[in-house]
């Protein structure tokens, strides 16, 4: 296994989210109120890459939990603790709100892939929306996980999603839940360990799907990154433990690099903890190739 590369000049506070561009730049959002773009050895910290000015797209009545951008449709989607999911048309410098939906409770997690949007709320409801017709959700279902949702991620195939909770569990759910597809949906335990012969359960903070193979990685408060083959219900491998909680994971456009944010998420309250860090892991084929079915 190749050594991971640690990014220089990481954020000064917790890393909340990361996204790769198609050209390999890595955008990082942090609790220090900054956005950073890492491009090779260079660091640029800015909001508007052409004018270096920030523009307000819209507002929520409470904290904004998640923001996504659709390149195909030129739309930004935001979800907040006010229970609102808002779609903004930001083409040609505009900021018009074109759709708004209300969910039951706070928006705790959200993901957008092509035209599909999945939203998980504090009341364990999961809504699926189509950006091409946002007036009503395609479906709403109850989370299969009993405890608080930490993250949700759409499958690259768009035929389902994965979600994870504070109880060290991940669920794979498929949209067509009748017949054979219903049998495919399942949940499993992960990110657990033993301390003094006692089982310790760690929250699962992040899920990242490989862009072409459909396998996925999870990161938890145990500082561990696992790679999974969801179709075969098998763990492929586990990376060496990182210094602290894994707050975010992100594959680049071809799945050859996995960005890993090792950043304490305050699951044990205020305490001394390792410095926040971002690592670039060179993904090996053996780590992400689906296992052969027996």
CATH superfamily: YVTN repeat-like/Quinoprotein amine dehydrogenase
Number of helix segments? 2
CATH class: Mainly Beta
Distance between the termini: 26 Å
The average pLDDT is 90
Q: Mind telling me which CATH architecture this is? A: 7 Propeller
Structural account:
With 294 residues, this protein is mainly β. It has one domain (5-288): YVTN repeat-like/Quinoprotein amine dehydrogenase (Methylamine Dehydrogenase, Chain H, 7 Propeller). The chain has two helices and 26 strands. The chain has helices at residues 180-184, 285-288; strands at 5-6, 15-20, 26-30, 35-39, 42-44, 64-70, 75-80, 84-89, 96-102, 107-113, 116-121, 125-130, 139-142, 149-154, 160-165, 169-174, 186-189, 192-195, 198-201, 204-209, 216-220, 225-229, 234-238, 246-251, 257-262, 277-282. The strands form seven sheets. A four-stranded antiparallel sheet has the order 1-26-25-24, with no helix packed on it. The chain has a four-stranded antiparallel sheet with strand order 2-3-4-5, with no helix packed on it. A four-stranded antiparallel sheet has the order 6-7-8-9, with no helix packed on it. A hairpin with a 6-residue loop joins strand 8 (84-89) and strand 9 (96-102). The longest helix has 5 residues, at 180-184. The protein is globular and about 50 Å long. Residues 41-50 have low confidence and may be disordered.
């Amino acid at each position: 296994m190749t050594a991971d590369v640690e990014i220089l000049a990481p954020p000064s506070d917790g890393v909340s989210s990361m996204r790769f561009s198609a050209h390999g730049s890595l955008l990082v959002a942090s609790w220090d109120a900054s956005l950073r773009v890492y491009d090779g050895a260079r660091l640029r910290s800015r909001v508007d890459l052409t004018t270096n000015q920030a523009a307000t797209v819209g507002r929520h009545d409470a904290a904004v939990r998640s923001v996504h951008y659709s390149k195909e449709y030129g739309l930004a989607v935001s979800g907040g603790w006010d229970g609102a999911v808002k779609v903004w048309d930001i083409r040609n410098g505009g900021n018009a709100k074109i759709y708004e939906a209300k969910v039951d409770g706070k928006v705790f997690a959200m993901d957008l892939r092509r035209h599909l949007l999945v939203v998980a709320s504090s009341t364990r409801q999961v809504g699926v929306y189509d950006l091409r017709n946002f007036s009503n959700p395609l479906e709403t279902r109850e989370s299969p996980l009993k405890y608080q949702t930490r993250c949700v991620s759409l499958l690259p195939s768009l035929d389902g999603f994965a979600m994870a909770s504070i109880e060290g569990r991940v669920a794979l759910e498929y949209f067509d839940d009748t017949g054979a597809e219903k049998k495919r949906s399942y949940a499993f335990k992960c990110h657990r360990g033993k301390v003094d012969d006692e089982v310790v359960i760690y929250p699962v903070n992040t899920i990242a799907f490989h862009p072409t193979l459909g396998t996925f990685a999870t990161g938890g408060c145990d500082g561990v990154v696992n790679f999974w083959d969801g179709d075969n219900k098998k763990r492929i491998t586990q990376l060496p433990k990182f210094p602290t909680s894994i707050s975010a994971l992100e594959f680049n456009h071809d799945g050859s690099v996995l960005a890993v944010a090792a950043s304490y998420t305050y699951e044990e309250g205020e305490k001394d903890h390792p410095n926040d860090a971002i690592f670039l892991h060179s993904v090996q084929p053996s780590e992400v190739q689906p296992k052969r079915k027996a």
